[in-house]
Amino acid sequence: MTFNEALNKLANKYEKYGFDKKFLSDQLQKGIMNYGFSVRAAYCGMAMSLAAETGENEMFSIEDVMEVTGESREWVVSQIEQSREELITAGENPDDYFKPVEPKNKSVFYFPGGLSDLTS
C-alpha cells in the first residue's frame, strides 16, 4: 500500500465526517515519521481510530494484523480461532467479529522454465 492509496482510502470514507485530506495526510505522516510505522500499519491504526470515533465499521485482514502486531500468520490465526471459541462459549456469534473471505478470483501462474526466464 502506498501513502497515496492509504490517504485516498481514508479520505473516501472519512471526509464526510469532517476529516479533511490535509489532516489525514498529516496524521499518516506522523505515524510513519515519528513512530516508524509502515504505511499499512499507520493506515490500520488510523482506520481503527476513525471508525471508533465515527461509528463506521472497518475490516482488517490477517495480513493487516500481522503488519501491526509483528506476529506470524500462524499466531494471528490461532488467536482468531481461540477468540471464536470464546465467543461461542459466551453465546455470541463469532461471525459478527471474524468474517472468513475467499478471494473472488484466484490466479495461478506457471513458469515452465523457472523464474530465471523472467530475469534474463
- What is the percentage of strand-forming residues? under 5%
What sort of overall outline do the alpha carbons produce when their principal axes are compared? globular
Structural class: mainly alpha
Q: How many DSSP E strands?
A: 0
Extract low-pLDDT stretches.
none
Largest sheet: none
What string, H for helix and E for strand, traces the elements in order? HHHHHH
Question: How many separate helices?
Answer: 6
End-to-end distance: 28 Å
Helix content: 55-70%
Q: If you average the pLDDT, what whole number results?
A: 89
Describe this structure in words.
Helix 1 (3-14) crosses helix 2. The relative contact order is 0.08. The protein is an all-alpha fold and 120 residues long. The mean pLDDT is 89. The protein has helices at 3-14, 21-35, 39-54, 62-69, 73-89, 116-119. The longest helix has 17 residues, at 73-89.
